[in-house]
Design goal:
The structure is a single chain. By secondary structure, the chain is mainly α. Helix 7 crosses helix 8. The longest helix is centred in the middle third of the chain and has 27 residues, at 129-155. The relative contact order is 0.11. The chain is built from nine helices and no strands.
Length: 213
């Protein structure tokens, strides 16, 4: 997982900074600006000002606004996907895996909540390298979700491929809905949100199943 550092707004020390450090500084600033303002409303000048560097330097590193956004998706997507994969590699199974995945997402997003909106920006390019980068990370996360869902369904005695596919779609929608709700209630900690999700899931499980099903 990429290291997360504070972004300085000072232009002092621009020269002599290693390229990797300078790129990370730009990407951290760009993630916040794109995630907060949206692709269409974001200007390279705004990102440069936030990062404390010159606009030409951004073009030197990333060539264009779309090139910068593509790099931002790669940077932010890795942060989220790496955390989800870390949880998938543990021995946690079933519903607990789902809850721990949510906890990991909330904890990862807590210091940088704008990351989530990068992947659901209707103003972002719908084709080209940026769109391909988004699709790649969505696919990576969907594979992990399907794996977890298949495991959960197997524990419940259901290995039907279409049921697993449908439940994966449901789970992805649930995750997006819960994270989107939380983005409007950022006073709630990752632990509080995980506990809330557990209560919600238990309420659904405990609900009476209609007769005939």
């Amino acid at each position: 997982m990429a290291r997360d550092r504070g972004v300085s707004t000072s232009r002092a020390g621009t020269k002599g900074v290693p390229r990797a450090d300078r790129e990370q500084q730009i990407l951290l600033a760009a993630c916040e600006v794109f995630g907060t303002e949206g692709y269409a409303a974001t200007s390279v000048v705004t990102v440069a000002d936030r990062a404390g560097i010159s606009k030409p330097l951004i073009y030197q590193y990333f060539e264009s606004k779309e090139g910068l956004f593509t790099a931002v998706i790669h940077f932010g997507g890795a942060i989220l996907a790496d955390e989800i994969e870390r949880i998938a590699r543990t021995d946690i199974v079933g519903l607990e895996r789902g809850l721990q995945t949510l906890r990991g997402i909330f904890a990862t997003l807590a210091p940088r909540p704008w990351l989530w909106r990068l992947f659901f920006d209707p103003s972002a390019p719908s084709s080209g390298p940026a769109a391909a980068e988004v699709a790649g990370y969505v696919s990576r996360i969907t594979v992990l979700a399907e794996e977890g869902v298949a495991e959960l369904m197997h524990l419940a005695g259901n290995d039907d491929a279409l049921d697993i596919s449908a439940m994966t779609a449901v789970w992805m929608s649930i995750v997006d809905a819960l994270v989107t709700w939380w983005l409007d209630h950022l006073d709630q900690t990752a632990d509080q949100m995980t506990d809330r999700c557990a209560r919600l899931f238990l309420a659904v499980v405990a609900a009476e199943v209609p007769a005939g099903l």
